[in-house]
Design brief:
heterodimer; A: 269 residues; TIM Barrel; nine-stranded parallel β-sheet; globular; B: 400 residues; alpha/beta; Rossmann fold; 2 domains; four-stranded parallel β-sheet; 16 helices; 18% strand
């Protein structure tokens, strides 16, 4: 089954072709305006990002700091729902449209809206609209494996897990052996948008993980917001994830293709 | 003494932290090491005789336990049954909340933690946490919704006087749910030296089980006291209010496996179940995940958590503990929705008949008595979880 996935999934395809300086950018669906999801997605693709992480807004995002929380609230106030997100993404991969989305897409969010949607229906929709993977920080590995992994695999949807500086080595090995796509390395013990710079402690953690020779590629997230932090992350991993900084940029500079290109260029000069 | 840890029942939490379909630990990886450390150690620590000796000594000398089991004669006559009040309102700090914070501060010390973070809604759990932190000399940070800070200013002042830092939760709806989110975020940002004292039987496993066991002193005492007064350890009914459900969990705990004892939970219907201003979780909620456990919660069709309403800030929570969700689903627990009006009326009734002003939360349990069809021979224990001083400004609006 794993072999089958490796040949089918855009995330695995990407890492098979490219293993350095990958940039994954997060944005919240339906933010700043309800209809902006497709615009921002295409803007990021045109700007050359390697992966896109679309946030499914949630009322109680406990792993997120103020910036992403507020973007979630604003998206919900705009009327964003999971059902609507799938409608917005429907057809985005269609080559006949002239401007198909080819960049790998992950949905990032919390488990409760997915449970209400129905896990199988969710996976089916992901498959249908061309979502390649999900990041659900409050779905723990053991529950994923015992209750949901079979369904996600059936539809070819990868589930990406987080590790932190406090994650035990045995647990990192377990995550590495049980998942594919990539491992999301949280740079320090923190919520999103609250990390300032990259410290020596963080470098020591990056080196420790680098030396583990994991089978999965690694992307570093949390605290990546400028060329320096991006380059540092790339020394120790296959690339990095930017979230809060891009949300702030969208808020201040808007969603035009030029604005998004300018942001991406400031990160990956 | 061993009662804290023994009691293998069908309502016992499973190894993975589930009560039937509810419970578990739905937490981000950032919290995993902390929660796992607690899970691996809590049973062993609670079973340690030295821990138990210290816990019970503080409950006796500091909290003032055992709390009385009081035969409310005039109320009994009015209701038409034999009604006992378990007087948790006489605990130090004015409510049952301190039973849990005493247990958890001792737990935090044994885990080598230097700092405590907590959430609070009405401020009762915040005060109980600030109290034990002062007692043990640990730093204390309490998150409280900024709206609640305005509504419950006396408790904010109490916490500050006790040396706690009270931080306004300004996210979301700025009430208990958001204070809980902020406390969890604080814990994520400070994983090594901080212990999170959750105030109810909610949160990721092992919190619901640990808090229920600390609160189980309520029913442990009730059994002894009832034997003394009635010649039997088991009443016909135990009645308690449920927000998150910690006083109810404690009052039910040693009766969970005795089907002859009817367990009655009073939820806050607010202005009425159908009004959109309610906190009656089992009446309005659906299964889902909130604050780290699978439980029943009030939410939209899209899975967004909805904002509850109750006149009582302690019941103003969109979920219930997973044990209660299991009691509800299995039919072991009988859930009643009590409106603001019914609760206030019951609060006035107890004040006038027995000279006891109950907390608005506890008044919901008292109001549920009116909904039960009881006979004169029925023996009923009502958990009077807290005293009403904090609610005077609300009660006085209803005077005359």
């Amino acid at each position: 089954m794993t072999q089958e996935l490796l040949t089918q999934n855009r995330i695995n395809d990407l890492f098979a072709q490219k293993s350095e300086r990958l940039l994954n950018v997060y944005f919240t669906a339906g933010f700043p305006n309800l209809g902006d999801t497709g615009t921002v997605l295409r803007g990021l693709q045109q700007a050359g990002v390697d992966l896109v992480e679309i946030g499914m807004p949630y009322s109680d995002p406990v792993a997120d700091g103020e910036t992403i929380q507020q973007s979630n609230m604003q998206a919900l106030d705009n009327g964003m729902t999971l059902k609507l997100l799938f409608e917005q993404l429907a057809g985005c991969r269609d080559e006949r449209s002239g401007d198909p989305v080819t960049v790998p897409i992950l949905l990032m969010g919390y488990i409760n809206p997915v449970l209400q949607f129905g896990v199988e229906a969710f996976c089916q929709k992901c498959r249908e609209v061309g979502v390649d993977g999900v990041i659900l920080p409050d779905l723990p590995l053991d529950l994923y494996l015992s209750e949901y992994a079979a369904t996600f695999r059936q539809y070819g949807i990868l589930n990406v897990f987080l590790i932190t500086p406090q994650t035990a080595e045995s647990r990192i090995r377990l995550i590495d052996s049980e998942t594919e796509g990539f491992i999301y390395m949280v740079s320090s013990a923190s919520i999103t948008g609250s990390v300032k710079g990259i410290s020596d402690t963080m470098r020591a953690y990056f080196e420790r993980i680098q030396a583990m020779n994991l089978k999965n590629p690694r992307l570093i997230g949390f605290g990546i917001n400028n060329p320096e932090t991006f380059e540092t992350a790339c020394q120790y991993a296959n690339g990095a994830i930017v979230g809060s900084a891009f949300i702030r940029h969208l808020q201040q500079e808007g969603t035009s293709a030029e604005s998004i290109r300018a942001f991406v260029q400031t990160i990956r000069a | 003494m061993e009662q804290l840890i023994e009691q293998a029942t069908s309502f016992e939490v499973s190894d993975k932290g589930f009560y039937g379909n509810f419970g578990g630990a739905f937490i981000p990886e950032m919290l995993y090491p902390n929660v796992e450390e607690l899970r691996q150690n809590y049973r062993q620590i609670m079973a340690d005789p030295a821990f138990q000796a210290e816990f019970y000594a503080l409950l006796t000398d500091y909290v003032g336990r055992p709390t009385p089991l009081f035969l409310a004669k005039r109320l009994s006559e009015d209701i038409g049954a034999t009604i006992y009040l378990k007087r948790e309102d006489l605990c130090h700090t004015g409510a049952h909340k301190v039973n849990n914070t005493i247990g958890q501060i001792l737990m935090a010390q044994r885990l080598g933690k230097k700092r405590i973070v907590a959430e609070t809604g009405a401020g009762q759990h915040g005060v109980a946490t600030a109290t034990v932190c002062a007692l043990m000399g640990l730093e204390c940070i309490v998150y409280m919704g900024s709206i609640d800070m305005e509504r419950q200013k006396p408790n904010v002042d109490r916490m500050r006087m006790l040396g706690a830092i009270v931080v306004p939760a300004t996210s979301g709806s700025q009430t208990l749910k958001d204070a809980t989110n902020e406390a969890m975020r604080h814990w994520i940002n400070n994983p090594v030296d901080t212990h999170y004292i959750i105030g109810s039987v909610v949160g990721p496993h092992p919190y619901p089980d640990m808090v229920a066991r600390f609160q189980s002193v309520i029913s442990e005492e009730t059994r002894r006291q009832l034997l003394d007064k009635e010649g039997r350890e088991t009443p016909d009914y135990v009645v308690a209010c449920v927000g998150g459900g910690s006083n109810a969990a404690g009052a039910f705990f040693h009766y969970l496996n005795e089907p002859s004892v009817k367990l009655v939970a009073a939820e806050a219907a607010g202005q009425g179940i159908a009004t959109g201003h309610s906190a009656a979780t089992t009446a309005l909620g659906k299964p889902g995940v909130l604050h780290g456990s699978r439980t029943i919660l009030m939410q939209t069709d899209d899975g967004q958590v909805t904002e509850p309403y109750s006149i009582s800030a302690g019941l103003d929570y969109p979920g219930i503990g997973p044990l209660h969700a299991h009691l509800f689903e299995s039919g072991r627990g009988h859930f009643h929705s009590i409106t603001d009006e019914q609760a206030v009326r019951a609060g006035f009734k107890l004040s006038k008949l027995e000279g006891i002003i109950p907390a608005l939360e506890s008044a919901h349990a008292l109001a549920a008595l009116e909904e039960l069809s009881m006979t004169k021979d029925d023996v009923v224990v009502v958990c009077l979880s807290g005293r009403g001083d904090k609610d005077l400004s609300t009660y006085t609006k209803y005077l005359d």
